[in-house]
Amino acid sequence: MEQTIRVELSETLKEKPKTDQLEFGRVFTDHMFVMEYTEPLGWHNPSIVPYQPLTIDPSAMIFHYGQSVFEGLKAYLTSDGDAQLFRPERNLKRLNRSNQRLCIPEIDEKLALKAIKELVALEKDWIPGAEGTSLYIRPFIISTEPYLGVAPSRHYKFIVILSPVGAYYKEGINPVKIAVESQFVRAVVGGTGEAKTGGNYASSLKAQEVVAKEGYAQVLWLDGVEKKYIEEVGSMNVFFKINGEVVTPALNGSILEGVTRNSVIQLLKHWNVPVVERKISIDELHEAYKAGQLEEAFGAGTAAVISPIGQLTWRKEHLVINNGETGEISKKVYDTLTEIQYGKTEDPFDWVEKVSVPSKVKHA
Amino acid sequence: MEQTIRVELSETLKEKPKTDQLEFGRVFTDHMFVMEYTEPLGWHNPSIVPYQPLTIDPSAMIFHYGQSVFEGLKAYLTSDGDAQLFRPERNLKRLNRSNQRLCIPEIDEKLALKAIKELVALEKDWIPGAEGTSLYIRPFIISTEPYLGVAPSRHYKFIVILSPVGAYYKEGINPVKIAVESQFVRAVVGGTGEAKTGGNYASSLKAQEVVAKEGYAQVLWLDGVEKKYIEEVGSMNVFFKINGEVVTPALNGSILEGVTRNSVIQLLKHWNVPVVERKISIDELHEAYKAGQLEEAFGAGTAAVISPIGQLTWRKEHLVINNGETGEISKKVYDTLTEIQYGKTEDPFDWVEKVSVPSKVKHA
Ligand SMILES: Cc1ncc(COP(=O)(O)O)c(C=O)c1O
Ligand SMILES: Cc1ncc(COP(=O)(O)O)c(C=O)c1O
């Protein structure tokens, strides 16, 4: 039986920001989705309600023991005025994998997808139309039981909020400088690195703060055990083109399995570009660089899609990649992925999921 | 200049739970302390207000990126009816060390101590008087800026809540069974293990869930790199008596520096019991056990003070320690620490800090 989602419309609608003034994650739409978990009821009362502050006891577990998970995806507006999502089932599957790791009761992925689609349909006028803009979708789960014990919470809220976001690249795709992180560790096998949970991001702030002062955009994370193998770049998965072959670190338990990562791999295979998932050490990368074989490097994630790496600094040595310019493969992957996301090119993989806007949804 | 704390008293007071029905962390007192951080003001408006739910935007960083820290200490009632704290400055120093790691602006430790004392004084009637009971004090800081970017928040709340708690040992101090954790990792050097931040506890839930099903009280955490060196037990520091000498893992960056740990070390030195902080591997422990030299083992933390380990299970082998009974040193440390905390014996280290209850504080 399909669950219905209760809808309570907001009485007043906010003014929408001007497209050219959009930032990332600062403005939110008029409504949000909320669903509660309590025992023995389980997940219940799925509702779309006016966007509003949460009222939570100061002893709620989320404030103390950080039991939480989240996701991030986008809704794109096509030139026909349709709203569409990019592989949303993968985000919801990953949300449930994160739930397992964090001892949070799993959600019904079908219901969650339906909730996202209904919310996006209702807020369709919030999807900005300009090049590179989109509506960022943030599903998240927080533990709300008022109890100071270190144990899984027995109350949760699953919430989805939406934020119109500007183009990541205001002046075209642009390579960044990255510092190889030598002191801090993002994640370790046996920890929570492959889950999307708040603690991973809280622990990453310090490293970011240190390198930002030195002019770097992000850090390249090495593994927590040997500080040798490459894991991710900032909050993105990472790819290197070495002597004609594209290499990305294999999933090992401490790397987040990105939707973009998976899409890049599929695209490259589709194009018959050699691509391999394997362990890759920073020493190997350095060797390849010295041999003139490090041809491209880029991060891959929902926010930027592709973020070319123009320079990598390791032990004070600056490895300048592809003259600090965006590589050919980086550019081709970026163009193709964004064209699929915005419905400008065919979608051979069936990645795009249309959001149908029922005529009964009224727009202000 | 000393800052004054604004006080807004609650109009209605709650009914206090019966002493014999006290649990841990489920009931909270009538008031709480709150202080806000915004830029450029910094920390401001320190206030004692009625205990109440927090109203926080769903986009607030705490719900997404887990930027938070906390502390835990207790107020004890002496037989003279005085309220006293145990080494509270150490908790506030540790809170600021945690703040540094989590990119949270440091607090004024003096003001925080004053806030705790004034709050405890106001709520003095909430400190239960029965043997082993106390008033648990939970200072914590959460990031409240409504922004979905992975960056340090620019708004925070520092809050202190109080909860009357029952005796940890209802039927006398009692040894527990512990499983050596082989799959999951609590912390790794370069991560956040030495900070008291939510993510560490969220990531520990899974291991605890798995072993609890097999009848163990807690896990013994090994280091995240070699899975070999002993770090902590559950949410406590750990001590072993091996052939007459007490050994505890040295602080290495992934172990929390416990106030109880430090007090145990000082007590043992005071008694001329050999005590050493050093790396200790699970293999060494196993060897000592086989040689009949593993004489005692115990966890140490604010909640239980001392938690004797009666059995340690490693690779399916059950190491029964001291016949599963509480060891002599464990007992002596437990008795002395609790006697100091409750003001039943002299305090040669000046650990105890009295809370003065001004006559103008009215009790219901
Ligand atoms: C740590 C981390 N790695 C990788 C990614 C990329 O994943 P995706 O492509 O699904 O956005 C993200 C973010 O989204 C992330 O937070
Ligand atoms: C992870 C961890 N280790 C050790 C301790 C013991 O510290 P303390 O003695 O200060 O309570 C605690 C808790 O308080 C803890 O959470």
Structure explained in plain terms:
Chains A, B: This is Branched-chain-amino-acid aminotransferase. Chains A, B: The modification N6-(pyridoxal phosphate)lysine is found at residue 196. Chains A, B: It catalyses: L-isoleucine + 2-oxoglutarate = (S)-3-methyl-2-oxopentanoate + L-glutamate; L-leucine + 2-oxoglutarate = 4-methyl-2-oxopentanoate + L-glutamate; L-valine + 2-oxoglutarate = 3-methyl-2-oxobutanoate + L-glutamate. Chains A, B: Keywords: Amino-acid biosynthesis, Aminotransferase, Branched-chain amino acid biosynthesis, Pyridoxal phosphate, Transferase. The structure is a homodimer of 364-residue chains. Chain A is α+β, with helices and mostly antiparallel strands and 364 residues long. Helix content of chain A is 22%, strand content 30%. The first copy, chain A, folds into 2 domains: 6-166, 2-Layer Sandwich (D-amino Acid Aminotransferase, Chain A, domain 1), CATH 3.30.470; 176-341, D-amino Acid Aminotransferase, subunit A, domain 2 (D-amino Acid Aminotransferase, Chain A, domain 2), CATH 3.20.10. Chain A has helices spanning 88-101, 109-122, 198-213, 259-270, 282-290, 328-341; strands spanning 6-7, 31-38, 42-50, 54-56, 68-70, 73-77, 83-86, 134-143, 156-165, 176-180, 218-222, 230-233, 237-242, 245-249, 275-278, 294-301, 305-314, 317-320, 352-355. In chain A, strand 14 (245-249), helix 4 (259-270) and strand 15 form a beta-alpha-beta unit. In chain A, helix 1 (88-101) packs across helix 2 (109-122). Chain A is globular and about 60 Å long. The model of chain A has no long low-confidence stretch (mean pLDDT 96). At the A-B interface, strand 4, strand 8, strand 9 and helix 3 of A face strand 4, helix 1, strand 8, strand 9 and helix 4 of B. Strand 4 (54-56) of chain A pairs antiparallel with strand 4 (54-56) of chain B. One pyridoxal-5'-phosphate binds next to helix 5 of chain B.
